[in-house]
Amino acid sequence: MYDHLTLISGRAHPRLAGEISTYLGVPLADVEVVDFPDGETSVRLNQNVRGRDVYLIQPTGPAVNQNLMELLILIDTCMRASAARITAVMPYFGYARQDRKDAGRVPITSKLVANLITGAGANRVLTIDLHAAQIQGFFDLPVDHLFAAPILDDYFRSLEIPDEELVIVSPDEGSIKRALQHQARLGGSLVIVDKRRFSATETRQANLIGGPIQGKTAIIFDDMISTGGSIVGAVNVVRQHGAKKVYVGAAHGLFCGPAVERLSKANIDEIVVTDSLPQPAASELGNLKVVGVAPLLGEAIRSIHRNESVSRLFD
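Below the sequence we write its predicted C-alpha coordinates.
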Protein backbone atom coordinates (compact mmCIF):
# COMPACT_ATOMS: atom_id res chain seq x y z
CA MET A 1 0.00 0.00 0.00
CA TYR A 2 2.86 2.38 0.84
CA ASP A 3 5.52 1.26 -1.60
CA HIS A 4 8.40 3.71 -1.80
CA LEU A 5 7.12 5.87 1.11
CA THR A 6 9.63 6.90 3.79
CA LEU A 7 8.92 8.85 6.99
CA ILE A 8 11.78 10.70 8.66
CA SER A 9 11.60 12.58 11.94
CA GLY A 10 13.80 15.44 13.01
CA ARG A 11 14.31 16.22 16.67
CA ALA A 12 11.68 18.99 16.90
CA HIS A 13 8.68 16.74 17.62
CA PRO A 14 9.51 13.01 17.65
CA ARG A 15 6.31 12.10 19.53
CA LEU A 16 4.09 13.50 16.77
CA ALA A 17 6.23 11.78 14.14
CA GLY A 18 5.78 8.51 16.01
CA GLU A 19 2.00 8.95 16.08
CA ILE A 20 1.93 9.64 12.33
CA SER A 21 4.06 6.54 11.82
CA THR A 22 1.64 4.44 13.88
CA TYR A 23 -1.39 5.91 12.10
CA LEU A 24 0.01 5.04 8.66
CA GLY A 25 1.63 1.77 9.71
CA VAL A 26 4.93 2.95 8.23
CA PRO A 27 8.06 2.80 10.43
CA LEU A 28 10.22 5.86 10.89
CA ALA A 29 13.52 5.75 9.01
CA ASP A 30 16.79 5.19 10.82
CA VAL A 31 18.47 8.59 10.95
CA GLU A 32 21.11 9.99 13.28
CA VAL A 33 20.93 13.70 14.11
CA VAL A 34 23.57 15.00 16.52
CA ASP A 35 25.24 18.30 17.41
CA PHE A 36 28.97 18.87 17.28
CA PRO A 37 30.58 20.64 20.26
CA ASP A 38 30.58 23.93 18.31
CA GLY A 39 26.82 23.70 17.75
CA GLU A 40 26.83 22.45 14.15
CA THR A 41 24.19 19.83 13.30
CA SER A 42 25.25 16.55 11.72
CA VAL A 43 22.85 14.16 9.96
CA ARG A 44 23.43 10.60 8.81
CA LEU A 45 20.71 8.59 7.09
CA ASN A 46 21.22 4.88 7.76
CA GLN A 47 18.95 3.49 5.07
CA ASN A 48 18.38 3.78 1.35
CA VAL A 49 15.93 6.44 0.10
CA ARG A 50 16.89 6.36 -3.59
CA GLY A 51 13.74 6.76 -5.69
CA ARG A 52 11.50 7.03 -2.62
CA ASP A 53 8.76 9.47 -1.62
CA VAL A 54 10.19 11.03 1.55
CA TYR A 55 8.27 12.98 4.23
CA LEU A 56 10.39 14.95 6.70
CA ILE A 57 8.41 15.72 9.88
CA GLN A 58 9.83 18.83 11.54
CA PRO A 59 7.82 21.78 12.88
CA THR A 60 9.97 24.90 13.10
CA GLY A 61 8.77 26.17 16.45
CA PRO A 62 11.01 27.04 19.42
CA ALA A 63 14.01 26.77 19.16
CA VAL A 64 13.10 28.11 15.70
CA ASN A 65 16.55 28.63 14.19
CA GLN A 66 17.86 25.25 15.35
CA ASN A 67 14.79 23.38 14.06
CA LEU A 68 14.80 25.23 10.74
CA MET A 69 18.48 24.55 10.13
CA GLU A 70 17.99 20.90 11.02
CA LEU A 71 15.12 20.67 8.51
CA LEU A 72 17.28 22.19 5.76
CA ILE A 73 20.08 19.71 6.47
CA LEU A 74 17.62 16.80 6.43
CA ILE A 75 16.24 17.97 3.07
CA ASP A 76 19.76 18.25 1.65
CA THR A 77 20.61 14.79 2.98
CA CYS A 78 17.65 13.20 1.21
CA MET A 79 18.21 15.18 -1.99
CA ARG A 80 21.85 14.02 -2.19
CA ALA A 81 20.70 10.45 -1.42
CA SER A 82 18.56 10.58 -4.62
CA ALA A 83 15.09 10.66 -3.07
CA ALA A 84 12.43 10.90 -5.81
CA ARG A 85 10.29 13.48 -3.95
CA ILE A 86 10.85 15.32 -0.66
CA THR A 87 7.94 16.79 1.30
CA ALA A 88 8.70 19.05 4.27
CA VAL A 89 5.97 18.31 6.82
CA MET A 90 5.92 21.45 8.98
CA PRO A 91 2.90 21.35 11.32
CA TYR A 92 4.03 24.77 12.53
CA PHE A 93 5.79 27.15 10.10
CA GLY A 94 8.23 29.41 11.94
CA TYR A 95 8.77 33.03 10.86
CA ALA A 96 5.24 33.14 9.43
CA ARG A 97 4.52 36.39 11.28
CA GLN A 98 7.28 38.17 9.35
CA ASP A 99 5.36 38.08 6.08
CA ARG A 100 5.47 41.73 4.93
CA LYS A 101 7.36 45.01 5.20
CA ASP A 102 5.42 46.90 7.85
CA ALA A 103 8.21 49.44 8.35
CA GLY A 104 11.28 50.69 6.54
CA ARG A 105 14.43 48.55 6.35
CA VAL A 106 12.91 45.31 7.64
CA PRO A 107 13.06 41.86 5.98
CA ILE A 108 10.30 39.58 4.76
CA THR A 109 11.72 36.62 6.61
CA SER A 110 8.97 34.14 5.77
CA LYS A 111 9.86 34.61 2.08
CA LEU A 112 13.51 33.99 2.93
CA VAL A 113 12.55 30.77 4.73
CA ALA A 114 10.51 29.68 1.70
CA ASN A 115 13.55 30.30 -0.52
CA LEU A 116 15.79 28.29 1.82
CA ILE A 117 13.43 25.30 1.89
CA THR A 118 13.08 25.37 -1.89
CA GLY A 119 16.81 25.83 -2.44
CA ALA A 120 17.66 22.95 -0.10
CA GLY A 121 15.77 20.59 -2.42
CA ALA A 122 12.24 20.20 -1.11
CA ASN A 123 9.56 19.41 -3.69
CA ARG A 124 6.51 20.11 -1.54
CA VAL A 125 5.46 21.60 1.81
CA LEU A 126 2.70 20.34 4.11
CA THR A 127 1.69 22.65 6.95
CA ILE A 128 -1.18 23.62 9.27
CA ASP A 129 -2.70 27.07 9.84
CA LEU A 130 -0.17 29.49 8.40
CA HIS A 131 -0.34 32.81 10.20
CA ALA A 132 -0.82 34.48 6.81
CA ALA A 133 -2.30 32.35 4.01
CA GLN A 134 -0.46 34.35 1.33
CA ILE A 135 2.80 32.72 2.46
CA GLN A 136 1.82 29.85 0.16
CA GLY A 137 2.64 32.22 -2.71
CA PHE A 138 6.20 32.68 -1.41
CA PHE A 139 6.97 29.14 -2.58
CA ASP A 140 7.59 28.11 -6.17
CA LEU A 141 6.44 24.60 -5.32
CA PRO A 142 3.16 23.03 -4.12
CA VAL A 143 2.01 23.88 -0.59
CA ASP A 144 -0.72 21.86 1.09
CA HIS A 145 -2.20 24.17 3.73
CA LEU A 146 -4.35 22.28 6.23
CA PHE A 147 -6.56 23.70 8.99
CA ALA A 148 -6.94 22.61 12.60
CA ALA A 149 -10.38 24.26 12.95
CA PRO A 150 -12.41 21.07 12.35
CA ILE A 151 -10.39 19.27 15.06
CA LEU A 152 -10.88 22.09 17.55
CA ASP A 153 -14.57 22.40 16.67
CA ASP A 154 -15.12 18.67 17.17
CA TYR A 155 -13.84 19.03 20.71
CA PHE A 156 -15.95 22.09 21.52
CA ARG A 157 -19.00 20.44 19.96
CA SER A 158 -18.50 17.54 22.40
CA LEU A 159 -19.05 19.99 25.29
CA GLU A 160 -22.68 20.35 24.12
CA ILE A 161 -22.95 24.07 24.82
CA PRO A 162 -26.52 25.21 24.00
CA ASP A 163 -26.65 27.38 20.90
CA GLU A 164 -28.43 30.24 22.68
CA GLU A 165 -25.65 30.35 25.30
CA LEU A 166 -22.67 30.22 22.90
CA VAL A 167 -20.69 33.23 21.74
CA ILE A 168 -17.75 32.91 19.31
CA VAL A 169 -15.15 35.60 19.97
CA SER A 170 -12.65 37.06 17.52
CA PRO A 171 -9.72 38.45 19.57
CA ASP A 172 -9.07 41.18 16.98
CA GLU A 173 -10.37 42.50 13.67
CA GLY A 174 -7.88 40.39 11.69
CA SER A 175 -9.35 37.13 13.00
CA ILE A 176 -12.97 37.81 12.01
CA LYS A 177 -12.92 35.43 9.05
CA ARG A 178 -11.58 32.62 11.25
CA ALA A 179 -14.24 33.29 13.88
CA LEU A 180 -17.00 33.24 11.26
CA GLN A 181 -15.82 29.82 10.07
CA HIS A 182 -15.97 28.48 13.62
CA GLN A 183 -19.42 30.03 14.07
CA ALA A 184 -20.65 28.30 10.91
CA ARG A 185 -19.72 24.93 12.44
CA LEU A 186 -20.59 25.54 16.08
CA GLY A 187 -23.45 28.03 15.92
CA GLY A 188 -23.95 30.77 18.49
CA SER A 189 -23.45 34.49 18.01
CA LEU A 190 -20.30 36.46 17.15
CA VAL A 191 -18.47 39.28 18.95
CA ILE A 192 -15.20 41.03 18.14
CA VAL A 193 -12.61 42.41 20.55
CA ASP A 194 -11.16 45.76 19.49
CA LYS A 195 -7.37 45.29 19.81
CA ARG A 196 -4.80 48.02 19.27
CA ARG A 197 -1.12 47.13 18.75
CA PHE A 198 1.45 49.56 20.15
CA SER A 199 4.63 47.54 19.47
CA ALA A 200 5.79 44.04 18.52
CA THR A 201 5.17 42.89 22.11
CA GLU A 202 2.45 45.24 23.43
CA THR A 203 -1.26 45.17 22.57
CA ARG A 204 -4.29 46.50 24.40
CA GLN A 205 -7.89 45.36 24.28
CA ALA A 206 -10.64 47.81 25.14
CA ASN A 207 -14.01 47.49 23.44
CA LEU A 208 -16.34 44.65 22.51
CA ILE A 209 -18.17 44.83 19.19
CA GLY A 210 -21.41 42.84 19.09
CA GLY A 211 -23.14 40.98 21.85
CA PRO A 212 -24.75 40.58 24.26
CA ILE A 213 -22.38 38.26 26.12
CA GLN A 214 -23.75 38.57 29.67
CA GLY A 215 -24.24 35.14 31.26
CA LYS A 216 -23.08 33.26 28.14
CA THR A 217 -20.20 30.90 27.29
CA ALA A 218 -17.47 32.51 25.17
CA ILE A 219 -14.98 30.65 22.98
CA ILE A 220 -12.06 32.80 21.84
CA PHE A 221 -10.32 31.48 18.70
CA ASP A 222 -6.88 32.47 17.41
CA ASP A 223 -4.31 30.82 15.15
CA MET A 224 -1.65 30.70 17.88
CA ILE A 225 -0.87 31.54 21.48
CA SER A 226 2.61 33.01 21.77
CA THR A 227 3.21 35.19 24.84
CA GLY A 228 -0.48 35.11 25.73
CA GLY A 229 -0.91 38.88 25.90
CA SER A 230 -3.61 39.16 23.23
CA ILE A 231 -5.57 36.17 24.49
CA VAL A 232 -5.49 37.27 28.13
CA GLY A 233 -6.56 40.77 27.07
CA ALA A 234 -9.52 39.32 25.16
CA VAL A 235 -10.41 37.08 28.12
CA ASN A 236 -10.44 40.08 30.45
CA VAL A 237 -12.73 42.03 28.09
CA VAL A 238 -15.33 39.25 27.76
CA ARG A 239 -15.23 38.61 31.51
CA GLN A 240 -15.80 42.31 32.16
CA HIS A 241 -18.84 42.11 29.89
CA GLY A 242 -20.30 39.27 31.95
CA ALA A 243 -19.28 36.02 30.22
CA LYS A 244 -20.20 33.04 32.42
CA LYS A 245 -17.52 30.71 31.03
CA VAL A 246 -14.52 31.38 28.79
CA TYR A 247 -12.72 28.87 26.60
CA VAL A 248 -9.74 29.53 24.34
CA GLY A 249 -8.96 27.57 21.17
CA ALA A 250 -5.83 27.85 19.01
CA ALA A 251 -4.09 25.74 16.39
CA HIS A 252 -0.59 26.35 17.74
CA GLY A 253 0.49 26.64 21.37
CA LEU A 254 3.92 28.28 21.52
CA PHE A 255 3.62 29.49 25.13
CA CYS A 256 6.69 31.73 24.97
CA GLY A 257 8.15 33.98 27.67
CA PRO A 258 5.51 35.01 30.22
CA ALA A 259 2.70 33.02 28.56
CA VAL A 260 2.33 30.30 31.20
CA GLU A 261 2.31 32.81 34.06
CA ARG A 262 -0.20 35.07 32.28
CA LEU A 263 -2.53 32.25 31.34
CA SER A 264 -2.35 30.68 34.80
CA LYS A 265 -3.57 33.94 36.34
CA ALA A 266 -6.28 34.54 33.74
CA ASN A 267 -9.85 33.46 34.42
CA ILE A 268 -10.02 30.79 31.67
CA ASP A 269 -12.05 27.62 32.04
CA GLU A 270 -10.05 25.67 29.44
CA ILE A 271 -7.34 26.30 26.83
CA VAL A 272 -7.46 23.97 23.82
CA VAL A 273 -4.54 23.67 21.38
CA THR A 274 -3.29 21.02 18.97
CA ASP A 275 -0.06 19.08 19.29
CA SER A 276 1.44 20.74 16.18
CA LEU A 277 4.23 21.62 18.63
CA PRO A 278 5.45 19.77 21.75
CA GLN A 279 3.50 20.89 24.81
CA PRO A 280 5.71 20.87 27.91
CA ALA A 281 3.41 23.61 29.26
CA ALA A 282 0.75 20.93 29.82
CA SER A 283 2.42 20.07 33.14
CA GLU A 284 2.18 23.70 34.29
CA LEU A 285 -1.24 24.65 32.92
CA GLY A 286 -3.84 22.50 34.59
CA ASN A 287 -6.57 23.78 32.25
CA LEU A 288 -4.68 22.96 29.03
CA LYS A 289 -6.29 20.42 26.69
CA VAL A 290 -4.19 19.13 23.76
CA VAL A 291 -5.90 17.56 20.74
CA GLY A 292 -4.00 15.52 18.17
CA VAL A 293 -3.22 16.32 14.53
CA ALA A 294 -1.51 13.02 13.65
CA PRO A 295 -4.63 11.64 11.86
CA LEU A 296 -4.98 14.87 9.84
CA LEU A 297 -1.32 14.84 8.78
CA GLY A 298 -1.39 11.08 8.23
CA GLU A 299 -4.36 11.36 5.87
CA ALA A 300 -2.66 14.22 4.02
CA ILE A 301 0.53 12.20 3.60
CA ARG A 302 -1.51 9.23 2.40
CA SER A 303 -3.30 11.37 -0.19
CA ILE A 304 -0.14 13.08 -1.42
CA HIS A 305 1.67 9.77 -1.74
CA ARG A 306 -1.18 8.35 -3.81
CA ASN A 307 -1.45 11.56 -5.86
CA GLU A 308 -4.99 12.09 -4.61
CA SER A 309 -6.72 15.33 -3.67
CA VAL A 310 -6.25 16.61 -0.12
CA SER A 311 -9.06 19.17 -0.39
CA ARG A 312 -11.46 16.84 1.46
CA LEU A 313 -9.33 17.42 4.58
CA PHE A 314 -10.02 21.15 4.52
CA ASP A 315 -13.52 20.49 5.89
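The chain has a mean pLDDT of 94.
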